[in-house]
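Entry 14. Ran structure prediction on the chain below.
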Amino acid sequence: MKNSQYLLHDCCARNNAKMLSLTADKGLEGYGAYWMLLEYLREQSDYCMPLSLLPSLAKQLGKFTQWVEELVCNYGLFVLTDDGRFTSQGLQQRMKPLENKRKARDAKAEKEALKLAAQQAGNGTSPAAGRKTRAAAKPVRPVVAKLVDSAECFSPTEKTMPEKPVNNDENSSFSAVQKTETNEKNSAKKVENKPLQLVDNECVAKASLEEKRIEEKRIEEIKRKEKEATASEKESSSSGSESSSWEGWLNEALGERSWLELQAIHSGLSGAFLPHLEVISKAFREHVLRQGTEVTICSLRDVKSYFSNFIRQGTVTNKRLRELIEKAAATNVYRFEQLVDGQRTYCGLPIPEGAPPRPAVTSVWDERKFCWEY
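Output, structure tokens:
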């Protein structure tokens, strides 16, 4: 685990403009999730992770996948690569001193090894030969044999009986049998451990193959979305004068339901966003004309980016939108009702045609009196 010993952390990271935007939108949960993602990146060899792992990371963080994707993609804290991965430029820059130190250490070790090999080649001896030479130089203590009488070493019986010759063939056959039994035992142990190892290798191979397939699908999906975005921009640029203006691009963006639902979450207005979309779009148009920034909008992507920053939670413009929505809701006589498929309803109950607006949130329709009762 030498590769995951530490992670450099600037003490003033919370004051960064991108971090301030993150904490304004997602609070301290977003701040903590950011550093957890950095820890995951630090554990990788190249400090990169595939975007296909975001659902798994979201489960560990206890958040929805979309919540983590917004954190990675919307605040400029991470960089998306062309191969469907994300990384942190700040992390890579902070890890460069450690990488350079490791490279210098490896180069020094390699240089010392080459130097030692050159010295041994100049002496005409290998490392093993040098060790043998040093071993041979050690003094050997002589063994002094003591002369004894043969009568002291042998009994009369041993003198008369001839010495039994040593059968080298029997010894060699016994050692061969013993070696064969040892090899059979070792091979049996290897066979016992082999199935488990094969199963583990198959599981790892299947997991890596599945991860590779998911990553390939993710890359294909990203490329497809980029092609669709490019095609839509070309169509908008090749269409009439209205679609080539910033207001035409705004109308086109406001017609995308999925994009509007994402902006509703991004703004923090939730259920009040879509019902008051006309008020929000009118305020955005007035803001662009008042600031004189319509000349800087050159594509549909510019309109979407400008609109997202305009309604972003925690900004001054977002607070102004909340005031306008509250004012519009107060003047709406039908604010205590819900319109479902063209039918006026309240609390899931239909309101008869021709009935006056519901006067309060606690009002209940009386069918016999044909009026609202509190």
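Residues 168-238 form the longest helix (71 residues). Will compare against last week's run tomorrow.
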